[in-house]
Amino acid sequence: MASAGGNSWKYITLMLIRPETADDTRIIHRLTDDAFAPMPYCDGNEGASIDQLRSDGDLTLSLVAEEQGKIIGHVAFSPATISDASGDWYGLGPISVRTDRQKQGIGTKLAHEGLKQIKARGAAGCVLIGRPAVYGPMGFVSDGNLTHGKLDPAIVQYILLNGTAPKGEVTFAPALQETSP
């Protein structure tokens, strides 16, 4: 598409968000490990945790972002429980984007699509461990009413999809217990 000045062109590439397929599993593992490698708080098992979620039957929703036939992002949702909350809760993560495509909104789009899908399934909400500056703009909040082990409650966040705000201790699927910060 030509710009108003007529001298420059802008190409728009369409991104497809779709459920993972069996052919995607190795790519998702590698993408996740690469995306988390520079993070000082990671233990290098993030790709393996997705494989374990899948193996355990706890990978409730696994979506990939694809451009021109190449996977550039992934998000996982798995069951979570909150000690004093009712309804079906899910944990978001890991969420990963190819290193050369980070900070372009791809992870946010993946998260929003996943949240839309779990809401349609009747989920009460979604929880995660992460930086409020990153997840706050997506709608996640930390009100100090959720805990996860000895972590600072400020990084234990949720987004309410149906019902009432949660309170209590968050427990993630077993595959994520070892990778929780």
Overview of the molecule:
- With 181 residues, this protein is α+β, with helices and mostly antiparallel strands.
- The protein has helices at 25-36, 46-56, 106-120, 132-135, 174-177; strands at residues 15-19, 61-67, 70-82, 89-97, 125-129, 146-147, 156-160, 168-172.
- Strands 1, 2, 3, 4, 5, 6, 7 and 8 form an eight-stranded mixed β-sheet that branches.
Topology readout:
Blueprint: E1 15-19, H1 25-36, H2 46-56, E2 61-67, E3 70-82, E4 89-97, H3 106-120, E5 125-129, H4 132-135, E6 146-147, E7 156-160, E8 168-172, H5 174-177
Parallel strand pairs: 4-5, 6-8
Antiparallel strand pairs: 1-2, 2-3, 3-4, 3-8, 5-7
Number of beta-strand segments: 8
Provide the helix percentage: 25-40%
How is the quaternary structure best described? single chain
Radius of gyration: 17 Å
Distance between the termini: 45 Å
Mean pLDDT over the full residue set: 90
Q: What is the strand content? A: 25-35%
Question: Which residue ranges are poorly predicted, with pLDDT under 50 across at least 5 consecutive positions?
Answer: none
Specify the overall morphology.
globular
Largest sheet: 8 strands, mixed
Structural class category: alpha+beta
Order of helices and strands: EHHEEEHEHEEEH
Instruction: Please tally the helical runs, counting DSSP H or I stretches of 4 or more residues.
Output: 5
